[in-house]
Amino acid sequence: MDKYRLRFNNEFNKYIQLYEHIKSLIDKNQIEDGEKLPSIRELADFLKLNKVTIINAYKKLQVEGYANQKIGSGTYAKRRDSIRGFKKSYSITFKKLSSGRLGDVIDFTGETTSADFFPVSDLKAVLNDVLDRDGAEALIYQDVLGYEKLRERINEKFWDNKLDFDDILVVSGAQQGIDIVSKALINVNDNIIVEKPTYSGALSVFKSRKANIFEVPIEKDGVDLEALKKILKKNKVKCFYFMSYFQNPSTVSYSDSKKKELLKLAEEHDFYIIEDDYLSELIYDENTKYSSMKSYDKNDRVIYIKSFSKIFLPGIRIGYLVCPRIFKDSVQNSKVNTDISTSSLMQRALEMYMEREYWVEHIKLLNVKYKERYEFMKTEIQKKLNERVEFNPPGGGLHFYLKLSDSIQINSIELFYKLREKGILITPGVMFYKHSKEGERYFKIGFSQTDSDKIRKGIEIISSVLSEEAEVYGIPNN
Amino acid sequence: MDKYRLRFNNEFNKYIQLYEHIKSLIDKNQIEDGEKLPSIRELADFLKLNKVTIINAYKKLQVEGYANQKIGSGTYAKRRDSIRGFKKSYSITFKKLSSGRLGDVIDFTGETTSADFFPVSDLKAVLNDVLDRDGAEALIYQDVLGYEKLRERINEKFWDNKLDFDDILVVSGAQQGIDIVSKALINVNDNIIVEKPTYSGALSVFKSRKANIFEVPIEKDGVDLEALKKILKKNKVKCFYFMSYFQNPSTVSYSDSKKKELLKLAEEHDFYIIEDDYLSELIYDENTKYSSMKSYDKNDRVIYIKSFSKIFLPGIRIGYLVCPRIFKDSVQNSKVNTDISTSSLMQRALEMYMEREYWVEHIKLLNVKYKERYEFMKTEIQKKLNERVEFNPPGGGLHFYLKLSDSIQINSIELFYKLREKGILITPGVMFYKHSKEGERYFKIGFSQTDSDKIRKGIEIISSVLSEEAEVYGIPNN
Q1: For site-directed labelling of B321, which of A320, B57, B202, B281 has its Cα 20 to 30 A away?
Q2: Rg (CA), chain A
Q3: Does B125 touch chain A (CB under 8 A)?
């Protein structure tokens, strides 16, 4: 009982302090997995606290996965599994990073283009010109679908005017696109298929819709069609979510034939395809040509989602989606229920930015800068991690996906912790699988936030950590 | 069969044209409710179309509620009930309105302060100053919780620094607040309580979470506590959603005693309270004092949601919420899954706008302007609709909620259509009830978008329409 004693700070909420205390006892194994916690009355008497405080602390332990309540019996400690613990720790790391509390780290986890390349002055110019031109008009709510001229402009610049601009819905970034499409389409127990591995932000949304998620392994040119067909044969599937270029995390791009095959399957088996076209502007390999699945979509089977935040103008939080007509109304309603509408001013600024073709130059610049980094990082990995990892160069995008060689005994979570101590941040593969364990042999490193100096230094440190691990197990350092 | 014939326009999708045609036949009763539609083969032969086109048209009819499919038997027409039809028609009206296609109407449906009062030059100043001060920094993603300085500023200006600023989460408007809180808290079949009537945007979100919704009638000083207690006695309730001031639509404000009583009930019955503080800045009645329920919340029972879009700087799409610690992590995750983060630039602009106290002047101005409109509209209603409607003046906010007198035989949906013909837009009460029919005797008229001229003219037309209705049934015109 004595271990439960703690000195309270009167300035803070007591139940939170008690919760933190018990949690740390569980983490340190001073309370064992499955150990019964004191009864509420017992602990209240012991700590001279109100029973409600104990109840709240126990409740929070349950909510956070540190305890189970057995009705009529009591509350029992539960050790959080290492992956859940890791995810928590990962998210805390990024809170610290984004609020500047991590100091000078080498961040290989970035997903957005670097602030160094942001066209601040262009953005400033269009914001001012929009406010001068439109005045208060620029601030009122738009049509639910989004600012009409922006939808026309998107149709003109990216679709050769082949879409009906009323089929375009402006959203506040691609993540919102995935969220509102899910709310409109996916209900409890609906079957949906994702790539394995896949983007963790999409996985979370589908899980929160209580969908029944099937994972299909990804191959060099897209998802494994035979595995997919097996699922389709036995299950009525609602939709398939995928990324057409530089898939996150596997970096795979789809072949045209696979895109077409998937469209055929969608028609035969009556399911819909969510195409997350998140990074196709950054193609470094001259043999890779761009063609979205949506552009081949004759039967209105593809929900196309595009982010402008990742690459265009990150602070602007705008993307769009193109939706089969059959879902148009429900997706629109879902948008209204999610946030009414996307910032009107930003939509107008983006429209002007497109009209003036500022983006063309900007994307050219990004391609030059990131191709350099890509080539440099590829070479560094090949040189310094050669026997430690396996990977396929993606030919575009902002990251590499590495598989630990069999000679490396630690998994990518352990690698994450070891590297974090040395000021290097990576993303372990466990984030990208429905059953996280399957990602333990993989990790992702991106170059969006790291110049060549940081890339060189970071890869060197990864190399030395992996070499130590290999040495421990008798494999010579290279 | 002949009625199915139509001439196709080759430029557009044929199945959509067929769908529209059949839908209009159903609307016009040329296909009756329950009538069997031709078989797919029959209709394909008759119209010389591919069978897939017929299948898609029938599928869309089903999705839109115009047909039922009976397996092995065929597809049957279904007349959409008048309320569902109305809601569709209402939403189309507003699409037309927001894209300027309705021309010069008198819009009594507005919910946001008028563009005439927007402080465009102040916004422009802060946007420029933020971009000059922060450069590209202003555009990168923030801490999940939102820009730290903005959270500090909110704590300082609105909470006297009594909150922990890390308990504040910045969101993209109040609707998003409701959505992410619901995703974090509410699961399938959870019991939740709302006021009757309540805000339609919240109802939709709760319905989409598949919650079990209880409605409790609203009285002059807040929800009916006896009715609420009856529900609490028999059901484990997860949360109660309410608006503390000028409730939308009933315009009721809560008494302090009712707020405290509700907090006590929440603690006793272990439920949480979502306080939507959507319009408390506009108080015209000097006897009404402001105190949020959150400010009385000692046991961390209240999730407080505040919009800045409605009143502060509408184009900016920012609000915030304060969340009990027990839900903090799950609400944060829900925010990330919804849209990653709110526009960083706009958060910085808002912070500067607050720092410079521009908002104090702006809200003073709004109070002067809207109090004038409020008094004027109140008098006009009292003078011209006296025997036609009943209502309680709210003493603040942006609208009135009127009940049709018994002498008026039409319901508010019919009134909506009649007024729309004359260029007047109102909101029928059916939008605000779980069972829409209960709102048929009510309608809402707001003055946010209408100056005194429009108010005068609009109320006159409403008066003449209602008088005609009363006359038809033998009640003399006044």
Answers
A1: A320
A2: 25
A3: no
